[in-house]
Amino acid sequence: MKVKYPNFLILFVLSMASFAFSKGSLDSKTMLNGMGAVDTMISVEATVSTDLLDYPPGATVIISGSGYQAGETVTLQVLHVDENGDNLSSPTGAHAPWDVVADANGNISSSWLVPLDEDELGATLLLTADGQTSGLHAEWTFTDGQHDGFVSAVVSGAPVTICSGTSVPLSLTVTKCTTTPGGGNDGYTANYQWEQSSNNTTWGNATGTSTNSTYSASPLSNSYYRCKITISSNTTNCGLAVGVTYTTTSALITVKTSPTIFNVSYTGSVCATATITLSGSEIGVSYDLKKGNTIVETAAGTGSDLNFTPTSDNGTYTVVATSAGGCISTMSGSVVIGNGTAPLLFTVTGGGSYCPGDGGVSVGLSGSETGVNYQLQLNNVNTGSPVAGTGAAISFSLQTAAGTYTVIGTKTSGGCMSTMTGSVDVSLNMLPSISSQPGNQSITYGANASFTVAATGTGPFTYQWQEYTGSWNNISNAGVYSGATTVTLTLTKPTVAMSGNTYRCVVNGFCSPAATSDGNATLVVNKADAVIVVTPYSVTYNAAAHTSTYTAKGVEDEDLAGMDVSATTHTNAGDYTGDAWTFTDETGNYNDDAGTVDNAIGKADAVIVVTPYSVTYNAAAHTSTYTAKGVEDEDLAGMDVS
Fold first, then answer.
1. pTM over 0.90
2. Confidence at 54, pLDDT banded by 50, 70, 90
3. In what order do the strands lie in the sheet containing 394-399?
4. What is the 3-state secondary structure (H, E, C) of 359-399?
5. What is the DSSP letter of 635?
6. DSSP 8-state assignment for residue 293
7. Model confidence over 106-135: pLDDT tens digits?
8. Are 155 and 226 in contact (CB under 8 A)?
């Protein structure tokens, strides 16, 4: 008999007769099966068998075996005995071999799903098990019986596409034996287990109540569902095997993403004019503002907050979002406009900044009404508990969290709300801290030096530079110092005597205590070189002493004492090469110096007058007379007029 099966249909069949056959390689013995037929069973080193001798289409065959080598691969295969079935062409690949691994005791276990195609119905099937290492071979036969009584069932309610956050009812449509799953006078009773899978391969029990013949599925993403039906009792006209489990084909539920839920709120007064707001939105989603059941405005999602057009029209407002795929989500919350009279408006007071260690700053309201609760909000989020109005100004105590504070007044009767006037900011001031220490300064006398400090924290800042002279003392703007109360202390031409002095800066900010630099900033002043010019002389002897002239200048072109050119003093004519001079600083700011100079005094010409004579011979010797005078009209020796 051939039976056609529609899609998503499972045929449950129970055989009235069956037989089994096992074959091995060792001794044999004879046994009768349930129908009285003779089976030959050979006692073998390896065996394989199934939990039943006969199965309906769609049933699961439980396979077990023993006698194999521990850990070896055993190849299993189920084929039609008469070789006329779909051994090579089964659309599900049911007759392809598969491998299992023997456990430490040489045992194997597996399962095989009887195909639903009509070639299996009434077939005799051969199960073989071949050890790939040991070479052991075992066989077992069973049947897929054909009978007059059968039950078929399919999942109803799927495939279907739903939106996330919704559910779909699944049920079983059962034919032949009964029209009521789970019972019936001419049918069977069964136990049910719904299963769920994300890939149609790996299955697990469905969440929630999943052991009835119906199931409410609420998947978060695309999911497959099927039902396992285990026969618990049957009547004679159905012939279903008690304990046999039938598995339906799977049905897919496709899930589209529903819009994200955001919060509906408002600004302004719900008793006057209010702007309905949404705490967020998604691009590609449209948002309908509804008063009651009527759409009054539609806005496209922007990816950020939405503000609808301000309205004073009384009613209850909600927002419904619709995705491009048609999924709908109702946003959280609603706003009622026109519900009584709004609370009176008062002004938010207080705020400001505070320093670490302080208790914060006070935030309050300039007035209040009895019968109104006032909720303090920080950055539009409630903070603390509401404060009941007293008819006078109220305080929300000290606040320490930084941000913007506002107040919402809500009447205890009717719930009408108003946002109070204004807002105040609270901020935390930071202690001053040195972020950059002043560095050492090394200069040559005549140059300027400066020390700079940097600080962070909350200003304004004030600065006071100090110098260490056995103790730290404040510096004033005098002498070489300027900028003593600024970020940069300047020293104009500090002296060499100040070399080694250390400096620090005390920085006061908005908050106390002050910050002080590390005091390691050190001044080094190196001596300068004096500008010395020694002028040599080259003169003619004049009986006077001659000395080299010079200039000794400092960094400000001042004349410096300390020159000694006495070694350059000469009177008599001569060449005086290497006359030495020295400079010895008397201020402590200049380096000592020394050098030589070449001087010369040339010889002078004497003033000589020789007087000739012209006489008459008188037998006496006559000699010319003369005068030889020096530069000082002194008589000079050395004349020869002989």
1. no
2. confident
3. 348-350, 361-365, 394-399
4. CCEEEEECCCCCCEEEEEEECCEECCCCEECCCCCEEEEEE
5. B
6. T
7. 999 999 988 866 566 667 889 999 999 999
8. yes
